[in-house]
Amino acid sequence: MKIEVKRDLCISAASCVAIAPGVYQLDDEGKVYIVDPKGGTDEQILEGAKSCPVQCIIIKDDTGKQIYPEPAA
Ligand code: SF4
What we know:
Shape: globular
CATH class: Alpha Beta
Largest sheet: 3 strands, antiparallel
Strand order of the largest sheet: 1-4-5
Bound molecules: iron/sulfur cluster
Order of helices and strands: EHEEHEE
Low-confidence stretches: none
Number of domains: 1
Radius of gyration: 11 Å
């Protein structure tokens, strides 16, 4: 899976960090960044993204297809 973060949207809720601290962390500005894209299970990575109240974590599969947020049909 590939992880992208829209740092400008991050509001420092840190729920992603609580779920997958090995993957998501906050920097000095309180904005999310990826510590290690392999620092958690796929489930943790996805649940962390889903926990974000402003959906600033984008998850794609290895082919580049977006998994979360689910693309509009
Ligand atoms: S849950 Fe979203 S808003 Fe909160 S720290 Fe993580 S990326 Fe930022």
